Amino acid sequence: MGSVSLKIGDGTARFRRATICTSAVNGLMLFSVLTTNLFALYAFTYSPSRNSSNNLQYPLHQAHKNMSLISEQVSLIMKEIETSQKKLAQMEKELLGYETIDVSRPNTANELKKFLQRHSLPLGKDSKTGITEMVASVGHSCSKSMEMLSQYMNYKVNGQCPDDLSVAQKLISKGCEPLPRRRCFAKTISKVGNLYPFPTSMWKTVSDKIVSWSGLACKNFTCLNAKKVGKDCGKCFDLVNGYENQRFVKGRGKNDFLIDDVLGMGGDGIRIGLDIAGGSGTFAARMAEKNVNVITQALNIEAPTNDFIAARGLFPLFMSLDHRFPFYDNVFDLVHAGSALDVGGKPEKLEFLMFDIDRVLKAGGLFWLDNFYCSTDEKKRDLTRVIEKFGYKKLKWVIGEKVGAGKSEVYLSAVLQKPVRT
């Protein structure tokens, strides 16, 4: 049995290919199993009578009867084997996930069929993983939105992509993540003369012309700044006249922590961070002023958030909070989050998210919970219970009330330090 080694990067991928000898051995093993079963079956089914003379009179009849019974049992065994193989194959498909997307449905885009087509490994089966085919990377939940997915994949190859950013956003919001790749050119927007050099760009008004308003109700920032976008983003796209240019350097209440105070809790080890649902990117801008690089996770919900953050010279990450963070373990010195942690309103989803935050946060790193809205006492208890499970050190913990929409609302702010676990 031979093997071929393929050098890829720093590792070696091994693929084992079948030979004539391998096929012969497999055939011999199958023959041995069947023969053994036949003899065992014969031994258990053959029952000689007490009268030896009767045995001599009916040898052919008894042999024929036994052979018929053996043949019947072998047929049943083969059917069981075939059924088991089908069940195993179906289980493999369900575990891998790619077969849950039924491309045989009517009106399925041809490009989707081509993207999801499986390709055999060039050197045969991988001896370590048992994988024999390359499978396209696409979200498991895409199968629940096939009509919308086909609409997204219906385009002219090598042409310009349709104006369908809203469709992509809806698919991601429904768990269809990652989206399938496409072979079309995304719409380009001229930004010449409308961008400022960094770091001046962080606090300059962003032009309406350099962002995409596709699928959004507002088509300019004047409209957008007149409405509230989410719990953590009230007029957060107005960098000049609103409160945005004072956030994190001037607090309006005891729940508003200042960046200098939080950085002082982390010593000199804060260099890179992750901001979850970071609105217009102001947290990343303030941290950049302190020479800390921050990636801002955001979706374009009601606003061109990713375009806006990029126009400020900051790093946007377009993904939902249902997706595993695309970062290695223990890499961030700081993770900042607010009310966006309340994903779906379910404690289990909150736990999954918190475990992923803990995974990317280094030991000794800071988790800054910023004005988490505790809509109910149960919500506050759920969050507190999850946090205590991780054993973080509470460097600062404040529960305060704010008046919103004519009623008092409870918010939790905290700075927590991840412990070193053995």
Could you explain how this protein is built, in words?
- With about 425 residues, the protein is α/β, with parallel strands linked by helices.
- Helices cover about 35% and strands about 20% of the residues.
- The protein has helices at about 20-45, 50-55, 60-95, 110-115, 145-150, 165-175, 220-225, 260-265, 280-290, 305-310, 345-360, 375-390; strands spanning about 5-10, 10-15, 120, 135, 270-275, 295-300, 315-320, 330-335, 360-375, 395-405, 405-415.
- The strands form 3 sheets. The chain has a 7-stranded mixed β-sheet with strand order 7-6-5-8-9-11-10, sandwiched between helices.
- It is globular.
- About 20% of the residues are buried.
Structural class by sheet pairing and helices: alpha/beta
Low-confidence stretches: 1-22
**What's the CATH first level of one domain?**
Alpha Beta
Distance between the termini: 43 Å
Order of helices and strands: EEHHHHEEHHHHEHEHEEHEHEE
- How many helices? The count is 12
What is the name of the CATH superfamily of one domain? Answer: Vaccinia Virus protein VP39
The proportion of residues forming helix, as a percent range, comes to 25-40%
Global morphology: globular
Mean pLDDT, to the nearest integer, reads 82
Strand % is 15-25%
